[in-house]
Amino acid sequence: MQHRDSQPRFIQALQxxxxxxxxxxxxxxxxxxxxxxxxxxxxxxxxxxxxxxxNFFEQNQLLGMLDMFTGGAMRNFxxxxxxVYPYITxxxxxxxxxxxxxxxxxxxxxxxxxRRKINRxxxxxxxxxxxxxGYAQLALLQSQNIITHFDSLxxxxxxxxxxxxxxxxxxxxxxxxxxxxxxxxxxxxFAGIVASLPDxxxxxxIAAHDPIGLITFIILGFAILALIVIFTEAHRRIxxxxxxxxxxxxxxxxxxxxxxxxxxxxxxxxxxxxxxxALMMFPGTIATWFMNPVGQDPNFWNAVYNLFRMxxxxxxxxxxxxxxxxxxxxxxxxxxxxxxxxxxMAKTLQQQGGFVPGVRPGKATSDYFDRVIKRLTFGGAxxxxxxxxxxxxxxxxxxxxxxxLSSTALLIAVGVAxxxxxxxxxxxxxxxxxxFLK
Length: 438
Hints:
By secondary structure, the protein is mainly alpha-helical. The chain folds into two domains: about 1-210 and about 405-438, SecY subunit domain (Preprotein translocase SecY subunit), CATH 1.10.3370; about 210-400, Preprotein translocase SecY subunit, CATH 1.10.3370.10. Helices cover about 70% and strands about 5% of the residues. It is built from 16 helices and three strands. A hairpin with a 2-residue loop joins β1 (about 235-250) and β2 (about 250-265). The two termini are about 25 Å apart.
């Protein structure tokens, strides 16, 4: 029998995970839920010309990128074609409403009970958003003659089906969070991204006419992946000292200690990218309802549609990416500052008897945190904006158009993978096992 110290740490950690009944059960439960999700992604709704639908997605890079997050469910127009997008949109809306709506702000301060109520409101808001997005996708496919004309009853049944599919995925995600490993919603998005990669890479190799460009594409993809890992884990440590006086047995004891607050460079995560993509998609989606079909004289809406296409040729396509770059920077500052305002770290630190060395408690500490956060956010915003436009840069460098390097998908996948590994690491550490990351 080989000694554990002589085995690679990663292999040994995997053996330790599956040797623990609780962790093994959680991992197997998560895998079972993901299998159910992949099965649902291949259950199509009626009345759709799948060949025309696949061709439409191959010609539209933006829809192809969005389809990657659903693992092909959108391309198949399945019952879970919306994925968990409506829930993510609802969660973002609630995060923005909490600091400005007094009742929601009061709920957020009620601890676990308040969070459950806010989560319930988020679920209720998800249903109309899912129905609206389902109807919008149905209208888009009808305008492109991809699906047959439906009567009102069939349209309502399809919209209800995709809404129910979204709510079912949310329920599966919450089951993973409760009984499995990791954040369930994030794991489902991660599974969709990973499931789409083999098909995308296979189509790229089949259709590739420039081997050097394809090799360059792969090299740049790994370089971007490494950059995303570095920036995802990058943070600045703010030193904090604690000084407390306590009475025990009638005597005064002074206690002190020091620690630090880690402030991430990329605090906003993928949220600004989702905001920016949604805003950039809106004009093009509206234009598809009014533009003239291919072969007819173009009208105003044809020009709008071409302006907001991520795969549009230069110089028109440059406008899309410049606007996208600017929106990501703006949304990063907006979202990060809102999140830190809700945290109110200066007040929390003062209540806990802590202080930043060399900075007075109270307003001076608050101003200090504001300065540090704005500087970090500037670096994080530039990083996210570069990640956002990376598909355009890679396409222009490699001239590979059959593949779309979705750096947004890479950002999500890396974040979910690191968070899940940290949870496994924590579980192993509690049981006095070595993990992956040490």
